[in-house]
């Protein structure tokens, strides 16, 4: 059976209680169930990993990278300066989607840049827990498409230089 890695970073283990006006009332367990529901018809399972420490997230990517068909990654605040997480994701070959519950670009200025996003197959922001469902659907789509990288080694995007 194919496995999708659901990777959640710092503070996401307390979803539902932490600033519900920003992050909503869904718990991480609710999100895990929603993602599992989205991928079940394809015969996929979900391996959910949440850590508050960056090193633990890096370890999870290295441990599960070769045994998964894709990943949904919410790096939390590590999007801002999670360089070792970025490096681990750079070596992760399957497609993966970065997710943020809140619209990070509508919030404080320091949240406006992600060191992670340029490596992702796609990014979903500001749609609450539903964003995880959309990321799961995107992974199903990407897995069905011919293998490709969104970025080539020379900086081209989609076959042309930006």
What is the strand and helix layout of this fold?
Elements: E1 2-8, H1 20-23, H2 28-40, E2 44-50, H3 54-64, E3 70-74, H4 78-81, H5 83-90, E4 96-100, E5 122-125, H6 130-144
Parallel strand pairs: 1-2, 1-3, 3-4, 4-5
Question: What would your notes on this structure say?
Answer:
The structure is a single chain. The protein is α/β, with parallel strands linked by helices and 162 residues long. It has a single domain, classed as Rossmann fold (3-Layer(aba) Sandwich), CATH 3.40.50.9100. It is 34% helix and 17% strand. It contains six helices and five strands, in the order E-H-H-E-H-E-H-H-E-E-H. The chain has helices at 20-23, 28-40, 54-64, 78-81, 83-90, 130-144, and strands at residues 2-8, 44-50, 70-74, 96-100, 122-125. Strands 2-1-3-4-5 form a five-stranded parallel beta sheet, sandwiched between helices. Helix 2 runs parallel beside helix 6 (130-144) and helix 3 packs parallel to helix 5. The longest helix is centred in the last third of the chain and has 15 residues, at 130-144. The termini are far apart.
């Amino acid at each position: 059976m194919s496995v999708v890695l659901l990777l959640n970073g710092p503070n996401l283990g307390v979803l539902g209680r932490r600033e519900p006006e920003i992050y909503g009332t869904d718990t991480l367990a609710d999100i895990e169930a929603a993602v599992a529901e989205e991928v079940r018809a394809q015969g996929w399972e979900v391996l959910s990993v949440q850590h508050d420490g960056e090193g633990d997230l890096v370890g999870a990517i290295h441990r599960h990278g070769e045994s998964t068909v894709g990943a949904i990654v919410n790096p939390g605040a590590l999007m801002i300066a999670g360089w070792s997480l970025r490096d681990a994701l750079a070596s992760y070959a399957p497609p993966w989607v970065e997710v943020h519950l809140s619209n990070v670009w509508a919030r404080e200025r320091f949240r406006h840049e992600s060191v992670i996003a340029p490596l992702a197959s796609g990014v979903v922001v500001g749609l609450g827990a539903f964003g995880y469902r959309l990321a799961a659907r995107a992974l199903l789509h990407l897995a069905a498409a011919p293998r490709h990288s969104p970025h080539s080694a020379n900086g081209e995007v989609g076959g042309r230089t930006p």
